[in-house]
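Components:
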Amino acid sequence: MADQVLDAKGLNCPLPILRAKKTLAGMPAGNTLEIVATDPGSIKDFEAFCRTTGHELVEQENDGKIFRFVIKKTG
Amino acid sequence: MSADGTKSMSIIVTKGTLDWAYPPFILSTTAAALGLNVTMFFTFYGLPLLLKQLDLQMSPLGNPAMKMPMAGMHMGMPNIMSMIPFVDAGATKMMENMMKKKGVASIAELRELAVESDVRMIACQMTMDLFEYSLDDMIGGIELGGAATYIEVATQSEINLFI
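Structure:
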């Protein structure tokens, strides 16, 4: 169970990333954020986001319509 | 690149129609979200993007690549249609409705996110004077600058874009 959940359903690029960034900024390091999105582009976007920011993409899954990501904030 | 290895990006923003407002703001906010230092330099028709009161329009005139999804197909509009009053306003409204329907951020929202993300926004002094805009017309937190200011930023940026 993630420490916090961000509902990004119905939002298109770049909003899921921008909202995630904002939410992560307010979280302590080590906490996890679960993001739920409907934007198919979010898969690649969140992978790139974690690669460049250093946050850890702990989990990701999708059923083709709903995309779930769990990101752990690194300090 | 800054001393701690942070990468930088600069964007020269020269266009101010509703459609062309998107690339600079999407790129700048996303780059900032990915940890880059971003500077946007607004000049010529990019200046209205800094106005407190945004009034962005769009026109299908001379835009053969603009084909809107309508009635199950992609349809363009012949140039001659732009002679008809309110066709541009109609195209603008159509675009705005499409954006809202598909959850695309508004320019106002993207701009606010850019300001919150500490994207450096510079308004070109020369074109401000040329088009007689005053700093009071613009949102807060922007700087005035000239070409040399921009070039200096660009020499220190890994990515420099002209939009």
